[in-house]
Design a protein that fits this description.
single chain; 572 residues; six-stranded antiparallel β-sheet; five-stranded antiparallel β-sheet; 11 helices; 35 strands; globular
């Protein structure tokens, strides 16, 4: 036991003390045993393994301890989510050059570009480790629209983590699902911090890239996860995703960023936030011309901090009422619990300021505790900031493994007054409906728009999106509601602009185009892709196309037009 503790205590390459311990244990035969261990570990490509005879031993030892703790956790119970909606979450293999067949309607001729959606897709299935729905390697599903036809592809984001596990032949890195019960706490104390180092990966280069997709002003495509740096990929000429690697922004970025950086296409700036849970570190940064040019650290508790927002004048970070508590792991409680005493507050930075500093942020507190997961839209109105966002309040006895004590997310309008440092939360007509995954058109982030969209949620699982909602920011109300037929599950409503020739005479805002998403028909177990008229939000799709292979439910999506497609294709 003392020998194992000695080895586990050293997270880097073998130290002198660890070598002595191994020599004491193995005697003169250490060299031959080490060589045998290296052979049995396959030819791991990580540079961390080469040149250190003891690393294979450490890999085996950490793996043994990890597997022993795995046997104390209920893996089957942890993956019940996969069977929801008739198996809609079960992982799939890569696919390429799959033509879509029109099921109803007609494919608009003014559509050219690519639709992408990313989500977790576990490589090893069924898993040997406790696995949450948010675990799984990032897989990008894409549809290339060109020449009046649509072609589907999907591919793994081949991150260093994914490559390591492919060579290792099994799961190695810790999953969210493992943070559960006493065995989960023991893993944190013994093996979690060792795994990345033994694999030769820094924390920000060990994420799954499975949460969101971004497009930079330079034309780079990112697959994002708040546990890592942006992972760059491209679409080939047919629209198939091809992995490139983590983007260090010309060596200016050496840490994680959030899954939802805000890109202002007007100015070419990208704003982001990041954190290191349990380390007391929270930071905000600005990227210009492909480089990190500004960054500051803020004093912030370990909240959920999933999203932020920008306007023409401000960058705003959100500190809601959720609080991270590692002690909840041993109790099999959610990782973040709603703290009713923690009021919602906003950290506001004026974009006109020359330098980000903690003193440049103004903190304004709302009168009540609330949490924001994803923001919809924000704009400036004189000295006020107007934010539209789904918002959740405290509710006892509501739990999953991630969030606890929070009720349904419903749409609200928040007015942040910079003159009297106040933030007032207002109800909006139609705002009682449960909703999440809100979106405006991506090319207008930080600018004024009139319309936005969000997913209408049904009861039960978080991904039960059974319709689309349309919001009018001038009329201050819900102006459209589309509910899918029974048994049909959608996702994030992404706006796809149409050509001016397709705009109706009466269209007066940012709804001149389509809302696109994958649909899952649980009764027939069919996947389709549908385009809905964004102006009328008619329940009949403009076109619905059958995807011959199943597309699992996933996270966030993105659209790039033909000009953007060609721009990303031309980059090295």
């Amino acid at each position: 036991s003392l020998l194992w503790l000695e080895l586990l205590h050293e997270p880097k390459s073998a130290s002198a003390s660890a070598t002595v311990a191994v020599l004491r244990a193995m005697g003169a035969g250490v060299s031959s045993k080490c060589a045998a261990g290296a052979s049995s570990m396959r030819s791991l490509s990580s540079s961390a393994v080469s040149g250190d005879c003891l690393l294979p031993v450490r890999l085996k030892l950490v793996g043994w301890v990890d597997r022993a703790l795995d046997r104390l956790q209920d893996v089957d119970e942890s993956i019940k989510w996969a069977d929801a909606f008739e198996g809609a979450f079960h992982p799939v293999g890569p696919a390429k050059d799959v033509p879509l067949v029109v099921k109803s309607g007609a494919l608009p001729q003014d559509i050219a570009g690519a639709y992408m959606r990313v989500g977790p897709n576990p490589t090893f299935w069924p898993p040997k480790k406790r696995t949450h729905a948010f675990d799984g390697d990032g897989m990008v599903h894409s549809i290339r629209f060109a020449g009046g036809s649509a072609t589907y592809h999907c591919a793994y984001m081949e991150t260093p983590r994914w490559k390591f596990e492919q060579e290792y032949g099994s799961e190695w890195f810790t999953r969210i699902g493992e943070f559960h019960g006493i065995p989960g706490l023991l893993k944190i104390l013994t093996v979690v911090n060792k795994k990345g180092k033994l694999a030769g990966l820094k924390d920000h280069n060990a994420s799954t890239a499975n949460t969101a997709i971004g497009y930079t002003p330079e034309g780079k495509l990112w697959a994002l996860n708040e546990g890592g740096a942006p992972f760059r990929f491209r679409l080939d000429e047919n629209g198939c995703p091809k992995s490139i690697g983590f983007d260090s922004l010309e060596e200016t970025l050496q840490e994680s960023i959030s899954a939802h950086p805000k890109v202002d296409q007007r100015t070419g700036e990208i704003f982001f936030h990041g954190r290191r849970l349990g380390k007391g570190m929270f930071y905000v940064g600005r990227i210009v011309d492909g480089k990190l040019v500004d960054r500051t650290e803020l004093s912030m508790p370990d909240g959920f901090h999933h999203d932020m927002f920008i306007t023409e004048k401000y960058v705003v970070v959100v500190d809601g009422a959720m609080r991270f508590g590692p002690e909840a792991i041993a109790k099999k409680k959610p990782l973040w619990m709603f703290a009713p005493e923690q009021k919602l507050r906003f950290g506001i930075f004026p974009r006109a300021a020359k330098k980000m500093t903690p003193d440049a942020f103004t903190w304004i507190e709302a009168p009540e505790a609330a949490e924001i997961v994803h923001t919809l839209y924000a704009y400036d109105e004189g000295d006020k900031i107007i934010l539209w966002t789904p918002l959740g309040r405290h509710k006892e006895d509501v739990e999953d493994q991630i969030l606890g004590g929070i009720g349904s997310m419903t749409m609200h309008k928040i007015v942040i007054d910079m003159t009297d440092n106040s933030a007032k939360i207002h109800d909006v007509p139609g705002g009682s409906l449960e909703t999440e995954f809100p979106r405006i058109r991506d090319d207008r982030i930080g600018q004024r728009v009139r319309y936005g969209f969000s997913g209408l949620q049904g009861p039960g699982a978080d991904f039960n999106f059974n319709g689309i909602l349309k919001w009018d920011f001038e009329e201050n109300k819900l102006v459209g509601k589309l509910r899918f037929p029974e048994g049909v599950i959608g996702g994030e409503p992404v706006f796809i602009p149409g050509s001016p020739s397709s705009w109706s005479l009466w269209s007066s805002g940012d709804d001149r185009g389509y809302v696109g998403m994958f649909l899952w028909r649980s009764e027939t177990k069919e996947s389709t892709f549908a385009l809905f008229d964004a102006e009328t939000l008619s329940p009949e799709p403009v076109v619905e196309m059958l995807v011959p292979t199943r597309v699992p439910l996933g996270f966030h999506a993105f659209w790039i037009n033909e000009e953007q497609f060609q721009k990303q294709l031309a980059l090295p």
